[in-house]
Design brief:
globular, two-stranded parallel ribbon
Length: 199
């Protein structure tokens, strides 16, 4: 009887859970459109943290992200590790990328490349009324090349984490992310886990 109650409790907690799908480093002319199609097919909105130089090369994909209801954020201009360059250059990476993103959608969301930051850089973000957005579930899709292994890594962490604000980190510049995303979305739907965007 206790096992049944525990199972019902777990199901109830999972059914109330929501996660955010976020994608860094794009837009990619090879993979972003495929990811957008998967999201559209499943009626899911996501957050895209775009790199300024990639946005400049592929503006039509950013326009598509906005048109399809996704939320934009900036991810620097060139994806340098901002703690390893001068403050002046780091400020440019932050402010210019945010300026470009805001040409397409009003946004105050910034994600540090590699999640690398310090108090000085945090202050730059805060003083410009931006919000630094991190993650608590890293798919490691940049490192793991097997889509099933990526999916397994994500779902294990989502299942274990009782937090209602899981933010999953993907990258829309790798081929292995495509099938992994399909599998992760199937898991979310099978377990009645909802998705939401950070705004």
């Amino acid at each position: 009887m206790n096992e049944i109650l525990m199972s019902l409790s777990l199901i109830a907690s999972m059914s109330a859970k929501t996660v955010t799908l976020s994608f860094d480093d794009g837009p990619s002319p090879l993979y972003t459109s495929q990811i957008l199609q998967i999201l559209k097919d499943n009626n899911i909105k996501a957050n895209f943290f775009v790199v300024g130089q990639m946005l400049e090369k592929n503006p039509q994909l950013v326009e598509q992200e906005v048109a399809e209801g996704h939320q934009l954020g900036a991810h620097s201009m060139t994806h340098k590790q901002l703690t390893k360059i001068s403050l002046e250059k780091a400020k440019y990476e932050i402010l210019e990328s945010m300026r470009l993103v805001n040409k397409y959608q009003k946004s105050d969301l910034f994600r540090f490349p590699y999640g690398s930051h310090n108090k000085t850089l945090d202050k730059v973000v805060e003083e410009n009324n931006y919000k630094a957005i991190f993650w608590n579930t890293d798919s490691l899709d940049w490192k793991i090349h097997d889509s099933e292994a990526i999916c397994d890594r994500v779902v294990v962490r989502v299942a274990k984490d009782q937090d209602d604000n899981d933010i999953i980190l993907f990258h829309d510049i790798h081929p292995q992310t495509i099938q992994a995303l399909r599998e992760v979305i199937k898991y979310l739907k099978d377990h009645n886990i909802k998705t939401k965007t950070i705004e």
